[in-house]
Amino acid sequence: MRSRIYIKKGAKNWEEGLPVGNGRLGASVPGKISEEMITINEETIWYGPFRDRKNPDCRKNIDAIRKLLLEGHVEQAQFMARMAMTSTPKYMNPYQPAGDLKIQFRGHLAKKTANRSYYLDLDEASAYVKYDMFDAHYERTHFVSQKYNVLVIRLTCSVPGNLSISANMNRKPFEENSEKIDDKTVCNYGQCGAGGVRYFTGVRMVAKGADVHTMGDFVYTEHADEVILYVASETDFGGNESYRENCLERLDNAERAGYEAIRDAHLKWYVPMFERVKLDINGCEEDFRPVEEQLDELKNEEKERNDYLTVLLFNYAKYLMISSSYDCQLPANLQGIWNGEYVPPWQSEFTININTEMNYWFVEKAGLSECHLPLFALLDRMVENGKKTAEELYGCRGFCAHHNTSLWANTDPEGIMSASPFWPMGGAWLSLHLYEHYLYTGDEAFLKERALPVMREAIRFFEDYLYEMEDKTLVTGPSVSPENSYLSSIGERGALCMGPTMDTQILRQLFSWYLQGSAVLGGNEEEDARIQSMLDRLPPTKISSDGRVMEWLSEYEELEPGHRHISHMYGLHPGNEITQDTPELFQAAEKTIHARLERGGGHTGWSRAWIACFFARLKKGEKVFENINGLLKKSIKNNLYDTHPPFQIDGNFGIAEAILESLVQSHNSYIELLPALPRAWGSGKLTGVRLRGAVSADLEWREHKVTSCVITADRDGSVSVKYGEQMFEKEVKAGQAVRII
Question: Which H helix or E strand runs over 247?
Fold first, then answer.
């Protein structure tokens, strides 16, 4: 099946455009006719410098704040925490665009176009704009080359000499410097705020059948047969003092190579990676209609499902991940790499109390393990900053991070709202992604050199930070259950608390996985015993009097019963604490989710994606299907971007995780086939999917029953595969396919 996203008309703004990227360089293509404005992004263009924002009064007031919380005086505790714990200043600075590439087409009139086609081809990682005008056919091809690190735009016309085009790069309203470099290159450059990164963006034009010139800070050609634009952008982040020269060298290399060589290299890089994992549902074929028409059919209930859009959502997630998190310095942020605003929502940061983690839940399963690496690179830098945060704010060893970070790997609290800044679990949660990478790859060198050292630093913080309660249990605090609030037993409103359920579930997984990994490498008896003792003293996940999982240590009334965050379900997903092997918690989890939904939960894109993941773990296929359809009906733009609103990429990635989890799961000690298959997905095929234990699987089903399952392992060993009530045990040899069913 070809995977293309067709849009009826050009986009109104960058959020509705077609995204292209190579991890470090991105562009949003709106598809305008007479004057195109393509937003360009470079991953390290963030406003302002690194700032040490630690509140000097935090450490000396922590004990007093804890005492108030333990006594039930939550409002007074929050009053103090807002002053003593929030950073000075409160906020980090935003991710910003490199600028807008404006392309003007002389003699083009949008109202005179016919046979217009505007689409993103996921199989080729290319955006296209095609149309007829005045008896001529025009085509534009856009992609970002990984090998040459340039945005490539090819413009052609069926009538020779019919292309008269100018191009200019600007950063309104943050315009600083723009000028011509030579007779075919113009640029825009400056500094992103005082002390911020210095940036340089160059635009090179190459034409066939006509000369290229510059005038002012424009590059242009008249009466050309074909025009190629190359755009490169770079900053001095990380001590890259030759950023300007490197940028111009990229343009030179691209021009020397030529379009055909660059295009060939692009496809050789992208296509094999995109095709590692393939999904088919009911043998669906490409639908050439605009996505908005297909979405309207679902919204108006003219159709009860659209298999093509479901598969397209999955393929789009793969595409967006490769395009925003491959061979780069930073992971995908709240908007991947695509952002057209200088003051974007939530600064377009890395929000690590759910959103960044959600971006990467599906990445190993989808065979895109290398796209996980930029997250680990950021985490490595966070460890060093987080050690200072732990010491200066809390008087603790190890490292910690709070709910947001940025280009600068910030670990201090951010913001002033009571329900989010005071959460010291960001580093702990992120470190679990290192162990997930090990589980999927079986790379013991990575476990020894990367995963366990970072996990150990996270644990070391909690050795000092955890508070011993009267019953000898160990709890976090002050903390929050992101980003919910409650009514205390004495009627006070608050979010700050001791020992929220999510914190304990994260720590239980962190301690358990660390001990597992340590055992693989031979262990450290004294150190492992100390961590085991901490693990044994964590409070259990509790069930409330009405049968739901408790969100806080005590049974409080929720102030927002339909809150979008369902943080205390971490143990169900992405954790593995709540399973069918814990039936009481399993039942309570389902009741918890239904209660939240009945009160208006799941109203944002990423939240609905997480809920779909919950239902996959609960083995509720119809609910998975319902929430995928709900996302399509309520939280998807015409370019298939997830919308919070506004656009947030986590919903795109999170729904891909839900789709995969409905078809195969491996978070227990075995692989389970079709654990939550919706009835609407009667037949299908999933090939190449990666699973924990360093194996991949090819799975096929018809009439809701598995007809074939083949496992290929990376190393010798054994696998356990569950299907229905059957359990299959097989010995496997590295590289050899073994048929299970």
Answer: helix 243-257
- Domains defined for the chain, CATH in brackets: 4-46+98-275 (2.70.98.50), 59-88+351-582 (1.50.10.10), 684-739 (no CATH)
Cα–Cα distance between 388 and 54 in angstroms, integer? Answer: 9
Residue 210 scores a pLDDT above 90: yes
Contact between 320 and 652 under an 8 Å Cβ cutoff? The reply is yes
Query: What are the backbone dihedrals phi and psi of residue 454, each rounded to the nearest 5 degrees, phi first?
Result: -70, -45
State how far the Cα of 320 lies from the Cα of 326, in Å rounded to an integer. Answer: 10
Measured between alpha carbons, how far is 231 from 235 in angstroms, rounded to an integer? 14
Q: CB neighbours of 260 closer than 8 A, spacing ≥ 6?
A: none
Distance CA 379, CA 431 (A): 8
> For residue 198, what pLDDT band results from cuts at 50, 70 and 90?
very high
Burial letters for 478-495: b for 16+ Cβ neighbours within 10 Å, e otherwise?
bbbbbbbbbebeeeeebb
Mean pLDDT across 27-33: 96
Query: What's the rounded Cα separation, in Å, for the pair 86 and 72?
Result: 21
Which tens digit of pLDDT belongs to each residue from 384-405? 999 999 999 999 999 999 999 9
What is the reported pTM?
A: 0.98
Using one digit for the tens of pLDDT, what is the confidence trace for 579-634?
999 999 999 999 999 999 998 888 889 999 999 999 999 999 999 999 999 999 99
Which pair of structure tokens corresponds to residue 96? 């910003």
